[in-house]
Amino acid sequence: MSQVLLSAKGLRLAFGGVKAADGIDLDVRHGEFLAIIGPNGAGKTTFINMTTGYLRPQAGRIEFDGKPILGLSPRAIVRRGIGRSFQLPQLFSEHTVLENAALAIAARRGIWSPFTPLLRPRWRDEAMDLLDRFGLRAVAESRADALNEGARKLADIAMAVALEPSLLLMDEPTSGVAAAEKMVIVETLVRVLRSTGVTAVFVEHDMDVVARFADRVAVWSQGRIAALGPPGEVLADPKVRREVIGIAANA
Amino acid sequence: MKRESLLAALGALALVVCAWAVPWLKFVLTIALAKGIAVLGILLLLRAGQVSFGHSMFLALGAYTMAFLAPMEDEVLLLLPAAALIAAGFGLVIGLFLVRYRDIFFGMLNLAFAMVLYSLLEKLYAITKGTDGIRVAALSFAGTEPERGTQEWIVFGIALGLAILFGLLVRFYLASPMGRALAGIKTRETRLEFMGVPARRVLLFAYVLSALMGGVGGALVAMTTRHVTPQIAYWTASGELVFIAILGGAGSALGPFLGATAFELVRVYAAAAVADAWQMILGGVLLVVILFAPGGVWGLLSRRWRA
């Protein structure tokens, strides 16, 4: 079995009476693409928020690369090598796409230079190369808030990839994207992530995307993992099809 | 960018010509430049989406540093950096607390600190001479003590030189990773944190820089008026700086100087024309700017270029 990169044990978190995490145990292996599926409100985003330090679980522990990360700030967790993208892309809307990418590169290389330009030649080239890999070169000079949803999603993920994480958590990378665009976006995404060797966990509602690109699928239901395994097995499970995919498809 | 540099050069030249042609305007324009430098600091905070309603405290710190130290050391080349450093140091200390807050809390906490300083300056009569204020002792410039007319030109020249220096500094800063991250605080602070960038530290750097420029502005005001009173720290003085920032526009480092010059000239001429109602005229100008030129004077000029 491959080495475990992220290990979550007994995560619990309730918001009032709603159990967003009710004993989550999950190991993410080095290099795999793990899809998280489940109906809205099942606690998928909560898991990402707990892993990235945005929320603190009431019980349980999380280890990354063998070291505990619970209680660390999002900033410290990013520096350990966990990146994330957002369901609603978090781009700097007043900046161009190129500046967004360059700022992410600056965040990795060192932002504390107050009098040398962000778009210095080397960083500009690096940012352009990053955008190229995501198929965003044509919109590099556009303001981030002028992009369509698909490009916004890719730019959001490109910024996370610029930080060179070893684990990338993506919250619904294809939500809000037109059906015709969806597969193109995921193919681009998977190609880039596979080429960098990054381990990926992604929340997804589209079962075609999950079946085609995930190495394993975790099924979330009411704050618990109801099933975990290869997509062929999990997605064929009648209980999952009836109770989760049916709901998820309607969600 | 070239047009911006050209406008800056033409603006600087116009100020010199005005100061030469109309000698009494030299005083007004020096004050405008001093306030423009302080407003550059407000502009930095505006880039982060934050408004300080208490920035006059840094002018007061710069001005009072000048007034307190001048009897002991009259050299402007030492006094100016001292005023800047004291304001920056104070900015660092209160900034460590203030950068935890955003929006209305940030604005009002700045106001609170400024009002505390104002009260201290007003009440501690034994030290500050209260509302009587302190007269700034005679100053020397690089070891010389020129006569009054020459001295006025020197102070005007220093103000103009520092305005250009800080204008360039702010322009480079805003184009740097730190400057772009500062603007990111306004739009996506969460993202900054998830990129591993400490937003508070980014804002703190800008705050200290803005305090430093406030201190320099205050020192220049003291060098020009030669008399310092607590009024410089009063909340209306802070409001005036925000007014100038809006009037000039936050889109360029030139905005604060365009705004400050327009403000001081409108004030002088409005006060001369309608002595009791000049504030009403300034209020009217602000209304017109907000309604028809939200980008301020700078916004109007740059729109004309683009058209």
TrEMBL record, chain A:
CDD domains per the UniProt record, alphabetical: ABC_Mj1267_LivG_branched
Highest taxon in the source lineage: Bacteria
Official protein name in the record: ABC transporter ATP-binding protein
GO molecular function, one term: ATP binding
Gene3D superfamilies, alphabetized: P-loop containing nucleotide triphosphate hydrolases
Annotated signal peptide: none
Segments passing through the bilayer: none
From TrEMBL, chain B:
Predominant location: membrane
InterPro entries linked: ABC_transp_permease (IPR001851), LivM-like (IPR043428)
CDD domains: TM_PBP1_LivM_like
Membrane topology, as annotated: Multi-pass membrane protein
Transmembrane region(s): 37-64, 76-98, 153-174, 202-222, 234-258, 278-301
Subcellular location, record wording: Cell membrane
Keywords: Cell membrane, Membrane, Transmembrane, Transmembrane helix
Protein's name in the database: Branched-chain amino acid ABC transporter permease
Species, as recorded: Belnapia arida
